Amino acid sequence: VPLVESGGGSVQSGGSLRLSCATSGYTSGTYCLGWFRQAPGKEREGVATLDYDGATRYAESVEGRFTISHDNAKHTLYLQMNSLKPEDTAMYYCTADTGCTAWTLLMGGQYRYRGQGTQVTVSS
Fold first, then answer.
1. In the chain, how long is the greatest CA-to-CA distance?
2. Which of 46, 106, 115, 121 has the most CB atoms within 10 Å of its CB?
3. Which phi-psi region, left, alpha or beta, contains residue 47 (left: φ > 0; alpha: ψ -120 to 50)?
4. Pair type for strands 118-123 and 9-12
């Protein structure tokens, strides 16, 4: 079952969006989940990650504005994005891996599974 993102869209600067990702089948063992993003002409960037132990990690650029969470009963990963800025504009991808931690996923940027992405556009 592929990872499937939803919730992207267009908002004005200062607005909020919540991204969702169906994660059924990806949350056994020592798993990690995360959100990455890539803007045109820029490198892929780790945004926020969490792991089987409940740890979370954030990129410095989103710390305090974004919150990652996982609803185990609904098998859904969320990314609540507040105080959005134009520089947050990018394609956002849901990712998953095993044998990892929130830290290794964010810092290493390596994962085995990735969704198709959902576009987030923030206008000034």
1. 42
2. 106
3. alpha
4. parallel
pLDDT of residue 45: 96
Handedness of CA 52, 57, 81, 97 (dihedral sign): negative
Neighbours of 109 (CB within 10 A): 14
pLDDT, the chain, mean: 97
Q: Can you tell me the distance from the alpha carbon of 52 to that of 88, in angstroms, rounded to the nearest whole number? A: 27
pLDDT score of 1: 81
At 40 the three-state DSSP class reads coil
For residue 15 the two structure tokens come to 């607005």
Q: Report d(CA 93, CA 20) in Å as an integer.
A: 10
59 in Cβ contact with 48 (< 8 Å)? yes
